[in-house]
Every structure is written in C-alpha cells, then in structure tokens.
From TrEMBL:
Histidine kinase domain span: 564-753
Keywords: Kinase, Phosphoprotein, Transferase, Two-component regulatory system
SMART domains for the chain: GAF (SM00065), HATPase_c (SM00387), HisKA (SM00388)
Protein name stated in the entry: histidine kinase
Amino acid sequence: MDDDFDGIDLGDGVTVASPSDGKGPSDAACVVVADPDAGVCDGVPTVLYTDVPPEAVDRPDRFDAYVRRGDRAALESQVRWLLASGDDAGADTDAERAAEPRNDPEWERLKRLYEGTTELIAAETVEKLYERAIGLTEDILEFNNTSFFRHDGEGFYVAANNDGLVGTGPISDETGLLGRTYRTGRSFLVDDVRDHPEADPNDPAYRSALSVPAGDDAVFQAISNEVGAYDETDLTLAELLVSYVSETRSRIESEAAVRQSREQIERLHRGATELAAATSLDELFERTVEITDDILEFDISYVGVVEDGHIVPTAISSDAPADGAERVPLDDGGIAAEVYLSRTTNITDDVRDHPEARPVKRMYRAVLSVPIGDIGVFQATAFTPAAFDERDAELTELLMAHVAVTAERIRAESRLRDERDRSTALFEHVSDAAVAYDVEGGALTVRDVNRAFQSAFGYDADDVVGSDLLGRIVPPEPDPDPVPEPGADETIPELLVAAGESYRGEVRRRTEGGVREFILNVVPLSPGEERGAGYAIYTDITERKTRESELERQNERLEEFANIVSHDLRNPLSVARGNLDLARETGDVSRFDTAERALEQMEQLIDDLLSLARRGQLVDETERVDLPAVAKQAWATTETADAELVTCQSVVVDADEDRLVELLANLFRNAVEHGGRDVRVEVGGVDGGFYVEDDGPGIEPERRDEVFEPGETTGEDGIGYGLAIVESIAEAHGWTAVVTSGTAGGARFEFRA
C-alpha cells in the first residue's frame, strides 16, 4: 500500500508505516487493507480500500470505512476522521485508546454512516444520489432540515431537500452563508445565524446552520430552529458524508459522460455510414447538417462549398434563419476562408473578440470551423460564447473526414458518368462498327456494340454482348511456318488494351457474310493503365481493297499494253512499211505478200490485246455447260490444219460459255503452234475441273511458272499472249491454272475451282 500513501498528508505527528517496518496491525492507530477477506484487528479502526464494490463485500460491518481504490482524497478524509475519533481524552496511549471499547453515540453514528454510504455508491443518477444523501442525514446524522444546492450560472437551485423544496430558485450567490460557502470553498458551523455577519436566512425562525461545499458547484446545508444545534462532530460527519456524495457524483457524472460519449460516437458512426448512401453532393451536405444538428447538438450547422473563388452556402440547419449564411469571397471571407486555405480546424470562443470574424448574424457568438478536404468548410455556430471544446472539434473532424471521402467518391462517380455518357453518345453515333469490351486473363468480353457493328458484321447485339468476341470474328490462320520469323508478333490487337496500349492497322475479320478487310483502331479506356477495358473500331475497307487490287491490275495491263504498242506492234509495222517501200522502188510484187503477213500478225496481236484487256473482269452469269460440245465449238473456229481433237463424254462445268470458248481456242492455237500441224489434243475432266493436253514437245519444268506471263513465247510466229489470256479467263471464273506433263509427254493444263 506504500505507493497509495505517497503525497497523503495526515497531519503533524502521524507516520504512515508498512508491515515491512516491523509493526503489526495491533500497533497501528488505523489500518488500511485492500483485501475484503483480510482479518480485522479488534479495537483498531480499519479502512477497506479496494476495487471490489461494496455490495460484494462479505460482512462490511467489520470495517470502519470503505473507500474505492484510487480515490486518494476520500482515503485521506477517512483516515483523518478515524484518527480524530480515536483521540479519546481519557486515554493516555495509543494502546489504551485501542483497548477502550467503541460504544459512544458519535462512533455509532460514524459506523452507521459508513454502512449507509453503500447506498450512495449504488446510486445511478445524481438526483438519486442527493435523495439518498438527504435520507442519510435524517436517519443517521439526525438532521431535520437539510438541502443540496446546485449552481447553474444564474444562482442556486435546490437539488435535494427533505421538505419538498426541490427546484426552488434561483437564489443569489452574492450574499448569505450559501454564497460565502460557494465562493470560499470552506465549511461553516454557525451556532446562531443572528450573530453571523453574512448569514441571511430565508426564514427568521432559523437559528443555527451547517454549510459545507460539495464540489465546485454545489453546497450542502443543514438548518435548525435551535441555537447551537450542531457541534464539531456534526460538522465532521457532514463533511464526511458530503465528500462521499461529491466523489460519488463525480463518478456518476464521469460514467454518464463516458456513456454519453460512447453513444454519441456510435450514433455518429451510424450517421457517417448513412452518408455513404448519398448519391449527390447536395444530398450529402444536407445529411451532414442533419447529423451535426441531431447528434452533435449544434445550434446552427452550415456547409459551404468553394466555387469560383467563393464559399457558397450549400446546406444549413433547418432552424437557421433564411439569411443565416451568405456567399463570401475566399480572399476576404473571414474565419471560414482562413480555415479552408489553411486546412486547419478553428475554435473561436467569441466572434466579437476575433479580428477576422465576419458573422452574418450578430447573435452568433462561438464558432467551430472545420475544413472538408478541398471541397469547402463546415461551420457550427452557437448563441453563447465558448460553446465548443476540443472534443466537439475532434468529433466534427471525424465526421468531415467521412464527408470528404464520400464527396470525392460522388465526384468521381459523376465524372465517370459524364465520361460514360459522352463515350456512349460517341459510341452510338460513330459511323464505323464499334465494340466496347473488357479484357481479363487473355479473354475478351463484350460490354456493348453499336448499330454499325451489327450492320457490318451481321451479328445481333443480344448474341454478342457478354460473349468472347475473338472466337467469333478472328478467322483461323493457316498452319504457321515450322520456324516463325524473328520478332514476329502474334498478339491479337484487341487484347492490347489490357496493357493500356493503342493500335491501328489492317486486319482480316470474319463476318456473317465471310471474311472481310478492316482498319482496326484499338483505344484503351485509360491509356497507359492496365485497366483492361477499351474500344475497338472497325472500318470496312474490303471494297477499297478490291478497287485497289483492280486498279493495280489495270495499271499492270496498261504497262503491258504500252510495251506491246511500243515493241510488239512496232516490229510488224516496220516490216510492212519497209516491204511497201521496196515494192514501190523495185516493182517486186512479192513484197506485198510479206507486208500482208505483217499486217495479219498485227491484226492477231490487236485481237489478243482486246481479249487481254478483259482480264480480271467478272465473267457473265455462269451456267452448267457440256465441256465436249464447247471444245468442238472452239476447235471449229481455230486454224488447226491436220491436228486431231479428242474429247471425253459427259464432262459438265459451271462457266461463261463464250469465255470458255475463248480459253480453249487459245490453248488449241498454242498446241498447234508448238506441237505441229498434226498434233493430237485431248480435253477431259479431272476432280473439281477439267484438263487440256497435247502430245507435242511439252514445256520444260523450269519454264512452267513463266508461260502465263504476257509476251512469253518460244514459237517463231507466236506473239506470247495466248496463255496470258487463258490465265485471265480462268481467274475470272475463280479457277486455278496449273501446267504439267501430259500422258504422251506433251503439255497438260489443268483447271480447278
């Protein structure tokens, strides 16, 4: 117990000792024990100083006093009283006093008062505490007229009384014994109030009084109509009782404050949780003001949001006047502007003493100002000075932290909605096919497609949304090379948004109508961030690519025609002109035959050029035709001398008959030119097509890839465009043309769809 006695003053000549000093309990003038089960020495006053509540102590009458552990002031008072009570004038030594039986009336009253204090400790409210204390003064101290007075700033009010005067007041604290006790904090014992210079009784029948301060704001008084009704023992017992009452009141109020604080924090937490449900800033700030009014119990609460360099009122208490807040500039906005710019909470006890304060209403006195992030300022105002303390500031800061977080969430969601609305509007009105999608784990999931996508790809939105688009639109690739090219990138462009990357390039994608060519633009939702969301925009360039290919072929044909005109036509023209000049000069008519053959060669060349000019054009509508019949028609229109045509029976192909006649005629002419006048030509069917072969010298394997080139020939009279015309007609039908060796060693041309 040594530490508990540090700093306790028990008066001159009194020594505090511990059992380690060699003294036993029987040698002590007073014993303090902490264990309720400890033994008690007869004849020695014993104080139980413990955390165990009085109702849990077994046989509490064994102890002379009870003090809750930690209440050093009460412990000091109890020990002082017991020591004073033990100073019996008839005993010369401590041992004699200890051996003397304790059966005098004062000692009995003290014992009964101690026992009665258990009722005080069990009180749950201050009102009940005072009521029980008044009962103890009647039953134990035997006082007839007692009261507890509490001061509330205006004066005293009767808090408890044994004569039904509770609530009486206010009573002035400037005069009288009541006021003097309150101002000095001292106890007074007055034998006759008529002889006391400051006593001012309400009733002239009052003659003697006890007046004891009960804490900082209360006074206990006992009044009697008899002179000298109270003595020093009465005063000591009254002080002891009041000390119990004051200490118990402090505990009750402290526990009530803690309980109220806990409940307030819990309510504040629930209110802050409700803020998270707000969907707009206006709703958030309105709820904030409601919470501060209801839970923090501020007179007027106000939220101001910073806009365009001003603090603009956004929400204010429902009880506030209509003009209770106003728009103020940041550069001259008083306390609110200071708090917002410094991001520091401010408590102003009285705005009338603050040089920067600019209250909207003169009735505003105290102000609590708390910043709300970079959004604005919260202010609470009170009609009395010094209405706010640090706890108010801490709770408000806690709430405003929630408000700031929720406001930022609402603003972010608003920005996201605006961005989504703009993106949706653009997405829907873009003229090209567009897809909004997410990428996770290498899989692409469609969020939305626009109408242009449905039109271009032929896939309905209901079938596409929520599915993996890549498996639907990416065409299968041919078998890759055994060894891929170094640095080859096999990543599907649509997946690049997973890394926040963009892409623009040409791709082939599968539609309901087949594979088509597109320019693909991949746009991540957040460039540079790995959010895995974005857009793909497909611009169909299939027709353009077809036109480009056709234009490229036309350019090639124009270049070929230019070469023919500049070279192949010039040679026979020169021959004809030279022979005509010689015939004119010499009169040799044989020159005319040579010139005529040259002109015939030019005519054939021009016919071939006209046919070649049709290369790449689509054939007319095809139909099922009998190949042997068409072959015989072509044979009849070709100069074949003594050559022989052999056809197979029942071979049918899909073709434009006129173009097929032209293809076969060129092959027959080529066979006669290279195989001789008596060449044998055979036409028959193969799997998926037909063939034409002869028994001539054939075509060397190294030249088979070149024979279809325009101008390529080995004959003396050929011009080299017949096989080029053959290939162009085959391509127009969608056939492939292959040169190989025939069964008799000659040339064999196979055509398959």
